[in-house]
Design a protein that fits this description.
Length: 268
């Protein structure tokens, strides 16, 4: 997928890797950048900051936990901008508590934003991509969708859902002979503030700039799945060959993954 002269929509594009990916898309020559975010002030600042690129930038204040808002804003995009060539489902939230400490509302909101919203948003723009027989969809999941982790039960559940849906969608596009690529991204913790307080024993906390570049390159190359820093095949292979008690021991004592969320603070 060549970004040049394409229209791209990024959810959660006012901060973190969403904003970095938006900048990188502009640097690669997209003609129209669409940002969906709940932060109205952030939208205005980002639009002003990116105006130096001389490209058309469209910002929409949206709460993606609200299906009606997704439908309304998707129609606005079709009317005001036109078809979307590249969609990056990036927006997400994390609570970071033991499961029994969650409220019903926190569970519902986490699942709606992290798992349901990407499906509803994609459903709004996928038919046009299929009609044009051209498009790219990138879903930012998480390595938490591969490896269970204490204090991440609901977040992990939402990302496991994204992993399963996203890769099934990829297979459907292939089966239907549609040139719509679907890329599933499964990163470890990224140093953006969303996971402030996490401690990693062995694996590095990912750099936002480098991570964003790898994601953009994965879309360009139409990569099917990208996990980082541990490759997808290594995680699945380890889960397949190791007895569960030994796998747990390795994740806890060698990689330290099961203790990463002990001092989690988040963005506060």
């Amino acid at each position: 997928m060549n970004f040049n002269n394409k229209t791209i929509l990024i959810t959660g594009g006012c901060s973190g890797i969403g904003k970095i990916m938006a900048r990188k898309a502009l640097e690669r020559g997209v003609s129209r950048l669409i940002i969906w975010d709940i932060n109205e002030e952030g939208l205005a600042k980002t639009k002003e900051e990116f105006s130096k690129f001389g490209k058309k930038i469209f910002t929409y204040r949206i709460d993606i936990s609200n299906l009606d808002e997704i439908k309304i804003n998707a129609q606005k995009v079709r009317t005001e901008v036109g078809k979307v060539d590249i969609l990056i489902n990036n927006a997400g939230i994390v609570v970071g508590k033991y499961f029994h400490e969650h409220t019903h509302e926190q569970i519902q909101k986490s699942m709606v934003i992290n798992a349901d919203a990407p499906m509803h948003i994609t459903l709004e723009f996928l038919p046009e991509m299929m009609k044009e027989n051209l498009g790219a969809i990138c879903n930012i999941a998480s390595s938490a969708g591969l490896i269970s982790n204490p204090k991440m039960s609901v977040y992990a559940a939402s990302k496991w859902a994204v992993n399963g849906w996203s890769d099934s969608l990829r297979l459907e596009m292939e089966q239907l002979n549609k040139k719509v690529s679907v890329t599933t991204i499964m990163p470890f913790y990224i140093n953006t503030g969303m996971f402030d307080g996490v401690k990693s024993k062995l694996l590095p906390i990912l750099d936002p700039e480098k991570t964003s570049e790898r994601i953009i390159k994965a879309i360009e190359k139409e990569t099917k799945m990208l996990a980082m820093p541990l490759p997808y095949w290594f995680i699945r292979f380890s889960q397949g060959i190791l007895p569960l008690p030994f796998f747990d021991w390795v994740m806890k004592n060698i990689f330290g993954i099961y203790d990463t969320m002990k001092e989690f603070k988040g963005r506060g």
